[in-house]
Here is the input.
Amino acid sequence: MRKTFYIIDDHEMLRSGTKSWIMGHSDWICQGDSGTHEQAYSDFERMDKEGGLPSILICDLNFYGENTGFEFMEKIHELYPSVKIIVYSMFFAAGMVQTAMDSGASGYISKNANSDELLKCMDKVIAGEDFIQDELQTRLIKYNKITDALTHREKAVMELLLRRLSNDEIANQLNIKKRAVENYISVIYEKTGVNDRAELVLKYGQ
Here is the structure.
């Protein structure tokens, strides 16, 4: 398989620097980059028609102050399942890592990690393995032990809370009543030992 990647990040200098570093320290080839989801969708549609999708998509989570990377990954994963997704983000809370993996990611690396860690992740992922940075993996194990007490629906609500969706938005996305969302949130607070939404996000979603 050709070792090609596409990178999307709304910080142009960081995106350019990451792209250059990868190509300068490995045999990976950059097939494109963009700073917006709209441009990425357009590029992927074109590359798909030309028969040359990248092996890996390196994706940030936060775009213009919003955690819209999850929805973007879900759509890319649905439309182009052959493309492996790696999250490369400043966010390293376990809740964000788990949500990213649930959204179709095969790898997760913090931007605070050693640069070689990103290359290691890319090589593991293209070989068909999931890869999460060791430090994040440890946090994820602890997080999953806590959320094991949640039902499937409560976990779904919690993931959307960590994405900073409002109660109305959560109700619409899960097709349930707003009152049900409020009840789920109360149970989540009790089971995770937090008092409010801000504390939940601070503890599990930063």
